[in-house]
Amino acid sequence: MLKRWFLRPGRVSFIHTFSRHFRLIELEGDALKTAAWIPGQQIQIGIGAGMTNRTYTPISWNVQDGTTRILVYLHGDAPGSRWMRALRPQQAFDFLGPRHSIDLSDIPEPCVLFGDETCFGLAKALQDTLGGRRTRFIFEVSDLAESRLVLQIVELGDAVLIERTAGDAHLTDIESHLRPLASDGAQYILAGKATSIQRARQALKAKGVASSRIRAKAYWAPGKSGLD
Question: What does R_g of the chain's alpha carbons equal in angstroms?
Answer without folding.
Answer: 17
